[in-house]
Amino acid sequence: MLIFFLVNYSLVYYSFRDRSIYFEKYLSLFIWLGFTFKISIPYVAMFFGYTINPFPENADYHLFSAKIYDEALIFSIIGFLGFLISFIVRKKFIFFYPENNEILYNRLSEFYYKFRDKLIIIFFLFFTVLNILNLYFEIYQKGITSTFEPNIIVLLYKWLLLMGLSSFACMFVNYDLLKNKNHKISSFAFLIESCSSNISILSRSFIFNIFILGMIYFEQIKKGLKLKFSFIIFSSFICLILFFTNISLSTKLRTCVDNYSDNTKIEKVFFSKKCLTKNETINQSNPASKSEIKTYEKIFSLMISRWVGIDSMMAIMNKKDILSFKTYLIFLNEKYYENEQSLYEKYFLTRVNNSNRPLIINKVILPGFLSYQSISGSLIFVFFSCFLIGLIGGLLEKFCYKIAFKNRVLCAFISYIFVFRLIHFGYIPINSLTYFIVIIFTFTQYRIYNLFLNFIHKLK
Fold this sequence. Notes:
Elements: H1 2-15, H2 22-47, H3 66-94, H4 107-114, H5 116-137, H6 151-178, H7 183-200, H8 206-222, H9 229-258, H10 273-276, H11 295-305, H12 310-317, H13 325-332, H14 343-348, H15 369-373, H16 379-403, H17 408-423, H18 429-459
Helix pairs in contact: 1-2, 1-3, 2-17, 3-12, 3-16, 5-6, 5-7, 6-7, 6-17, 6-18, 7-8, 7-9, 8-17, 9-11, 16-17, 17-18
């Protein structure tokens, strides 16, 4: 256990040293939350006289033997070391940011500075209308099977709400910070868009967008950016309000879906009278639905149990007799089947399959990248796969920086969505390859826009 803690904290420490990159910061923090923090929760609770279940998604956690705990720790340590060494290699041979911000002028930046106010107003209108339409027509929401046609519209909305809109806001913030030109408005646009888009797709992950922006501002303050104390207080207050709004509304909208018991999709879920009124009226036959979960209780629950890591590793070690490359290949070839559990759930978790769940709900439990690699049963494979993905993350951020005109804000966002995917890896792996390609498009699109503006300029 001591080695486990030492290696994990070393990973976090190294990822925040000089010449670190955003990918490493996010990855080390998510790993710390999913492994070190989560495994510590029962001991902290016992110290204060409480007994809690930190692994609500795994009914068998209390049956795990000391041997299973030890093996889970060993596989985790090996994965941590793979990531740590990849960080060292990246720093020496691949990429790190220059000490000072670099302003790279091009047609895109000229276009932004010329039409800045109009672009931000159009952006506000665009994402507001987009999110309202998404909820009204139920085009794309996380964990819900979309029946909207045509499918190309669903894919477009999915990209815009997960990456596209926020990437535009990143461009605004970056250009304003570089010239120290009223960056407060563009930062506010980033926060409002992130909050509304997360609500629209029923996601409670807005807190991470706040963290991205906070990290960017912290770095700029170290480089000499001056901020008034009143602005810091006001911004913190706005972030707090948006955070509680995101949790409260997303939970309410999720409850609207979860409480339909007729296994059919009605015309409108989120804009129905049942959803717009109190949750007690959604399903009178279900007494559990009559008590709406308070926002602070939901936040506490998410803080304790929703981190992915050590729980999935112990669940996998609990079935060590089936761990092999043969099993790993079966998982790599996983296919999508409507209203079916994931292979991870079928092989490693003891769950009650709720046949009364509405057919539109498509929720799966994920093991995360490190635990997923452990399905091979090989410590060597876990080490090298974590080492390789660490290098890929570093290369991805390097290419984003070079291709997206040295936009550090966009690099921070791109690395976050890549890490978030890794931490929640484990269902239909081929989809992650598609996701990776879409991430690359998200930062290369600005080269396309710049080429187009160059072409227009030459025509003049």
